[in-house]
Amino acid sequence: MTREEKSTIIKELTDKLAETSSIYFTDISGLDAQNTNKLRRACFKANIKLLVVKNTLMAKAMSSTDKDFGDLDQTLKGNTSIMFSETGNAPAKVIKDFRKKNDKPLLKGAFVDEAIYLGDDYLETLVNIKSKEEVIGDIVSLLQSPAKNVISALQSSGGKLAGIVKTLSEKES
After folding, report:
1. CA–CA separation, 13 and 21 (whole Å)
2. Taking the CB of residue 110, how many other CB atoms lie within 10 A of it?
3. What is the pLDDT of residues 44-60, one digit of tens each?
4. Torsion-angle region of residue 75: left (phi > 0), alpha (psi -120 to 50) or beta?
5. Could you give the CA distance from residue 50 to residue 7 in angstroms, rounded to a whole number?
6. pLDDT for position 151
7. Sign of torsion over alpha carbons 129, 135, 138, 139
8. Per-residue 3-state assignment (H helix, E strand, C coil) for the chain
9. Closest Cα partner for 116 from 63, 68, 61?
């Protein structure tokens, strides 16, 4: 690989690191071609980009960004595959689901919304992180719940003025 090719790869990785909020470092070594293809398909379906890059190139790209990756550079030993995703828990869910039939991929570390997780022990924690969409859905449900209760109570009162006043006074106390 020429110096120019390395520079191009580092620039592309730096750009990808800068624009992505969730980055997982994994070990998929030992997977045969069939299982590697299955993992790639699972990542594609979950809108995750899976790359295998040289550790030295990734380390240079990480140091070229404004993000603080903490000790994640220490995970760049041996075989490393990188998962890029806009949804914080998507790679963790793919890894967990894939490991029902395989012992890999192993989680080396993750950078999710500026938080750093080191080691495979954090896989379950990462699976349980709610995505922005899930949090927004929870908030909307909580906001709709009181309105639904009032509307339901008003409808059950038969729509008569006395019933409506009674229902509203009960909600105030």
Report:
1. 14
2. 28
3. 999 999 998 898 999 99
4. alpha
5. 20
6. 66
7. positive
8. CCHHHHHHHHHHHHHHHHHCCEEEEEECCCCCHHHHHHHHHHHHHCCCEEEECCHHHHHHHHHCCCCCCHHHHHHCCCCCEEEEECCCCHHHHHHHHHCCCCCCCEEEEEEECCEEEECHHHHHHHHCCCCHHHHHHHHHHHHHHHHHHHHHHHHHCCCCHHHHHHHHHHHHC
9. 68
pTM: 0.74
Q: What does the block give as tokens for 48?
A: 């995750």
Amino acid letter, residue 137: G
Rounded CA gap, 65 and 54, in Å?
17
Residue located via tokens 């349980």: 128
